[in-house]
Amino acid sequence: MRRTRSDYERPHALYMPRTRGAATGLLLILLGVWGAVITFVGPIFNWAYTADPAWTWTVGKGWLEVLPGVATALGGVLLLLSANRASAMLGGWLAVFGGAWFVVGRTFASTLGTGDVGQPVASTDLKRALLEVTYFTGLGALIVLLGGAVLARVAVRHARDVVVTDPAPAAVPAANYDESHPVVPARADQEAATEEPRGLFHRGLFHRRHHHAGV
Questions:
Q1: Can you give the pTM of this predicted structure?
Q2: What is the C-alpha to C-alpha distance for residues 155 and 85, in angstroms, rounded to an integer?
Q3: Could you give the 3-state DSSP secondary structure of residue 163?
Q4: Which DSSP letter does residue 38 get?
Q5: Which whole-number Å values give the CA distances from 117 to 33, 106, 194, in the listed order?
Q6: pLDDT at residue 70 above 70?
Q7: Which of 23, 125, 187, 215 has its CA 20 to 30 A from that of 114?
Q8: pLDDT at residue number 140
Q9: For the residues 165-184, what does the mean pLDDT come to?
Q10: What is d(CA 95, CA 143) in angstroms, rounded to the nearest whole number?
Q11: Residue 156: which of 16, 11, 12, 22 has the closest Cα?
């Protein structure tokens, strides 16, 4: 029975092009690193939430800033490197959870006993608002937006995600192979078939002329 090309299609449901989440993954890595590190380097530039010196570790910083920042960056790495739909979606969900924790983490800090990061070090309302946006709410909202967008992209299966595998060339079974009768290509068989009647015709014509000459 003749097999068609559709018989050799192998659609991999989990496959996706690696470039689909690469740009968003890189942005999420940068945002996650910012959220996890700014609390330690911010005091150097007078951009901080506490009056602690730079590179000072506290439990509140670990739970409310470092943890969601690491989760976001890890999700970005998975999106950047993954060619698998499942791992890419895991990266997207990690980023979404990290961003959501940036937004609501301080609200549950006292209930969960995770510590606090203090108040923004600012003398004006504008700087206080900018610190809030760049440290927590604005940063978290942007991460959630990017994570949700990339989840929507990787969840949809496109036509180019189907991998088509060409059939392998048929091999001659070793048990049926005979060195004295090698396999002749189809074109060679056709040429041999056309040459044989021609040779018989000429040979018959030659013998006929020879016979008349003898007569």
A1: 0.68
A2: 7
A3: strand
A4: H
A5: 18, 8, 92
A6: yes
A7: 125
A8: 98
A9: 52
A10: 7
A11: 16
Q: How far apart are CA 127 and CA 132, in angstroms?
A: 9
> Does residue 146 contact residue 152 with C-beta atoms inside 8 Å?
no
Tokens in use for 83? 């060619």
User: How do residues 94-133 score in pLDDT, each as one tens digit?
Assistant: 999 999 999 999 999 989 999 999 999 999 999 999 999 9
Contacts of 28 (CB under 8 A, 6+ apart): 72, 73, 75, 76, 79, 95, 143, 146, 147, 150
Question: What stretch of H or E contains 74?
Answer: helix 67-81
Q: Tell me how many degrees the CA angle 88-142-61 measures, rounded to the nearest 5.
A: 95
Rg (CA), the chain: 36
Please report how many Cα atoms fall inside a 13 Å half-sphere around the Cα of residue 106, on the Cβ side: 14
Report the relative pairing of strands 163-164 and 9-10 from DSSP bridges. antiparallel
Residue 99 CB partners (closer than 8 Å, separation 6+):
68, 72, 139, 140, 141, 142, 143, 144, 145, 146, 147
What is the mean pLDDT of the segment spanning 185-189? Answer: 52
From CA 194, how far away is CA 86, in angstroms rounded?
Answer: 59
Query: In whole angstroms, what separates CA 79 from the centre of its chain?
Result: 6
50-82 b/e (C-beta count within 10 Å ≥ 16 → b): bebeeeeebebbebbbbbbbbbbbbbbbbbbeb
